[in-house]
Recover the amino acids of this structure.
């Protein structure tokens, strides 16, 4: 998984790159909020962003707010990093759209654990999004009959509702056009009596053997 480090301090940025790369992540860097936003706006953006609160251009809170307002299908998991430690600062950071918050100076074991947790959340969100997309595609392929269907009370043909035309279709043809159902034909006992009285046994036997 790719991790973006948005940090203007060169020494801190270098230490973060070295540590996070050692933990097995692909690392991308940005030296200010504007370049971080550009990087996170690409289709192949990092799944996790380590964002410093105080940066030139767009600061961390503004960056988080802007990323979240974009309403992307797969938004990055934003971890705010700052030396601010007042409760109000923590609340402000989270309210701006940060998903997590870690104070400077931080323990690298804690940062590793938070990145690991963020990676699991991102993976679950992507898997859920893929399942939802699969379900939507499946539902789009399902044809359903709904509403009032105009049917002849004598021959049971159905009138199509296409604008500018009026055609009457056999019941089975209409259903096949508007659903995933297919038909096989047989003869019910009542119709055998009415239409094939002299061949009753043979017709019923053939109808059963065709099932």
């Amino acid at each position: 998984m790719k991790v973006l480090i948005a940090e203007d301090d060169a020494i801190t940025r270098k230490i973060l790159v070295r540590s996070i790369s050692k933990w097995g992540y692909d690392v991308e860097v940005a030296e200010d909020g504007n370049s971080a936003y550009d990087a996170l706006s690409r289709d192949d953006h990092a799944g996790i962003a380590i964002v410093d609160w105080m940066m030139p251009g767009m600061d961390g809170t503004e960056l988080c707010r802007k990323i979240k307002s974009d309403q992307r299908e797969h938004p990055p998991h934003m971890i705010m990093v700052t030396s601010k430690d007042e409760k109000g600062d923590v609340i402000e950071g989270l309210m701006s759209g940060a998903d997590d918050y870690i104070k400077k100076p931080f323990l690298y074991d804690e940062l590793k654990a938070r990145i690991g947790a963020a990676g699991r959340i991102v993976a679950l969100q992507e898997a859920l999004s893929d399942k939802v997309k699969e379900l939507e595609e499946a539902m789009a392929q399902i044809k359903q009959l709904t509403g009032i269907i105009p049917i002849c009370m004598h021959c049971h043909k159905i009138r199509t509702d296409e604008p500018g035309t009026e055609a009457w279709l056999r019941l089975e043809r209409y259903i096949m056009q508007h659903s995933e159902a297919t038909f096989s034909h047989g003869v019910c006992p009542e119709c055998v009596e009415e239409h094939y009285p002299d061949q009753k046994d043979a017709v019923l036997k053939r109808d059963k053997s065709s099932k």
Summary: The mean pLDDT is 84. The longest strand covers residues 77-82.
